[in-house]
Amino acid sequence: MTGIYYTDMLDVLRSAGCKVAENSTTNGWQKRARSSGGFPSAPLGIQWHHTASSTSPANDLHWQIVGCPDSPVGNMLLDRTGTYWPVAAGAANTAGKGGPLAMSRGTIPLDSANSRTFAIEAANNGVGEAWPTAQIDAYFAGSNALNARFGNAPSDVFNHQTWAPTRKIDPATSGAVQGGWRPGSSTSSGTWAQGDVCGECTRRAGSAPAPRPPTPDGGDDDMKASVIKGDGSDSYWAWDGVLCRGIPSLEWVQWGFEAGLYANTDPVLYPQGFVDQLVAAQGG
Fold first, then answer.
1. For the chain, which residues make up each domain, given as ranges?
2. Residues 145-177: pLDDT tens digits?
3. What is the pLDDT of residue 54?
4. Which CATH architecture has domain 9-205?
5. How far apart are CA 186 and CA 189, in angstroms?
6. Which of 103, 177, 263, 270 is 20 to 30 A off residue 118, Cα-Cα?
């Protein structure tokens, strides 16, 4: 075996309070990987998918591990009860062509998400089936725990649709999400809004996003936050080049001032609600 295999991933999830399970089909997951082998380095983020299936965990796992010619498909299955099942501890297949995409520790190169990121396949048909609260809570808890294991920021997650916007819609649909968190929709198919997913990961982690390493020339010109469109109630803003929806949390605003990320931005571009939070964050 070559590369890195995360044979502790079930322990990481258990420590975060997540339920895990194994069966005869998952046996051997500790040494399972795509043809390229293990990860060449710590994954830069977590891929979020839905399975587009309406079957049992046993059937989903059989397809991910045995039935698909491109197996293993994803690193884990998250079933409808919020239970994680291991698929592959090494790099897996599922992202396909897409990118590049910037994460906190670097950029996922073009068409390289399979070897550079960790994939969670969540059981859902993707066309209106309810997303139970237990499954949603496990999605966030597991993603945050794994990102912490890899040394990433909580917001280092991306929807499959974000990676391959012309081919994919998952995860969907936003209107079927149950519980207190309700994502916006970024496509007519109901894809969960990427910014809402990242923001909720950060909120549930209980901390502001970690600062990115400096650029090679020592500057931080790529670390700016700026609103690009907003009317106060429905704002779209760019954080490190990632399009986000909604006004960012006060914690993000305060951290942004401390890190100097709001330097050289024009406040007239900001909706009034965001300006009020900026002022409040400075104690003014």
1. 9-205, 225-281
2. 999 999 999 999 999 999 999 999 999 999 999
3. 97
4. 3-Layer(aba) Sandwich (3.40)
5. 8
6. 177
Single-letter code of the amino acid located at 151: G
User: Which two structure tokens, joined as six digits, stand for 133?
Assistant: 């609260």
- Euclidean distance between CA atoms 127 and 99, whole angstroms: 25
Q: Looking at residue 2, what is its pLDDT?
A: 86
Residue ranges of the chain whose pLDDT lies below 50 = 207-272, 275, 278-279, 281-282, 284
Q: Where do we find the tokens 């945050």?
A: 144
Q: Within 10 Å of residue 131's Cβ, how many Cβ atoms?
A: 25
* pLDDT, position 277: 54
- Spatial separation of the C-alpha atoms in residues 181 and 277, rounded to whole Å: 22
d(CA 176, CA 135): 12
Bond preceding residue 183 cis, omega within 30 of 0: no
Report long-range pairs for 275-283 (Cβ below 8 Å, ≥24 apart): 277/247, 277/248, 277/250, 277/253, 278/253, 280/250, 281/250, 281/253, 281/254, 281/257, 282/257
DSSP string, the chain: --SB--TTHHHHHHHTT-EE---TTTTTGGG---TT-SBSSS-S-EEEEE----S-HHHHHHIIIIISTT--BSSEEE-TTSEEEE--SS--B---S---EEETTEEEPTT-HHHHSEEEEE---SSS--B-HHHHHHHHHHHHHHHHHHT--TT-EEEHHHHSTTT---S--GGGB-SS----BSSTT-PBPHHHHHHHHHHHHTSPPPPPPPPTTS--TT--EEEEE--SSS-EEEETTEEEESPPPHHHHHHHHHHTTTTT--GGGS-HHHHHHHHHHTT-
CB 197 within 8 A of CB 157: yes
Whole-angstrom distance between the N-terminal and C-terminal Cα of the chain?
Answer: 58
